[in-house]
Amino acid sequence: MSINCIIVDDDEFAITHLRVLISQIPFLNLLTYYQSAAQALSAMATQDIQLIFMDIDMPEMSGMEFARMLQATHGADAPRIIFISGYERFALEGYKVNALDYLLKPVVYEEFLKSAYKAKTYFTEKEKPAAHTENYLPNEFIFLKVEYEMVRIYLKDILYVEGFKDYVKVYLTGDLGYVKALATMKAVEEKLPANGFIRVHRSFIISIDKIDSLTKNTIKIRKITIPITEQFKEEFRKFAHQWL
């Protein structure tokens, strides 16, 4: 498959760098580039754009404002956005507007390649006909209350959930960090599909497909070791029996 994409960035050097990176990915088809969000927005009606590599910090209209406007005008049919910025603090904001991914400048090839394949996976799944199955699809999501708004969180991005007294932290893949949501562990557990997530501790729910290694008493996800307590050990043992 081929993914039609554009670049939106006011920095000529960044545009040149991205053009080189895109040229090395055979399934990315660069249509053109724009140096302002307003120009890109006006092109939405005339071009079949699927993916946008978007700078956040731009004059006149920021990347975030562009994304919100795109959602308002195109809804579910809006092109997906991969944000590119020199500032890590914008990562959570990008997630709130349903960004497909977030890359930090200067963009290195390895990270760009991961994002490109993330886009390919998304569009491949989108093209598949709907199937009646109990397994959740990579683009399914839940909503959690973050500050004063309900934020959409994709199941495929969740590493694990850590519970505290009156809130939870949902740790996410890549540069997304975590989302601090006003919810109980019980409420989050009920929202998550049992075939994709399992509770192993009073304070931890983990994503099954994000497990890197496990023992009878611990699970490792990335560099974090999560304990399995007696209360949840039997249920986890049934799941992990084929490995332990």
TrEMBL record:
PANTHER family: STAGE 0 SPORULATION PROTEIN A HOMOLOG, TRANSCRIPTIONAL REGULATOR-RELATED. This is DNA-binding response regulator, LytR/AlgR family. It comes from the Bacteria. The keyword Cell membrane does not apply. Keywords: DNA-binding, Phosphoprotein. Residues 4-120 form the Response regulatory domain. Residues 142-214 form the HTH LytTR-type domain. It comes from Mucilaginibacter gossypiicola. InterPro entries: CheY-like_superfamily (IPR011006), LytR-like (IPR046947), LytTR_DNA-bd_dom (IPR007492), Sig_transdc_resp-reg_receiver (IPR001789). The modification 4-aspartylphosphate is found at residue 55. Pfam families: LytTR (PF04397), Response_reg (PF00072). GO terms for molecular function: DNA binding; phosphorelay response regulator activity.
